[in-house]
Known about the structure:
9% of the residues lie in helices and 15% in strands.
Amino acid sequence: MPNWCIPRKRHPASQSPPLDGCEVEITVDGKVTTKKRMDGYCTYQRLSRLGVGYNLSDTVHEVSIRVLDTQLDKREILFERNRDDFDKHPEKYTPHVWHAGAIFIVGEMID
């Protein structure tokens, strides 16, 4: 079995690394949108997709993503069944960060 198929051992919540969770501002060709980078399942680290540009013309585009200072009500975002984890391990939810696991670009990067 390939390494990528082998499930990793889950650590107890008290030993889990801090979780990402914030709001990001996405600017594509001057048009600004915001997206929350946390959802009701976020009691453990996982990759999730963040699309930033759809149906763009085949021209040069300017794209930026930045973490906003907005503090999310992470407990409220979690599904009710997951709020117990928040109450038991609030330190896990304290970080105000976002990590890009990968970047997929259709086209070429230019300076």
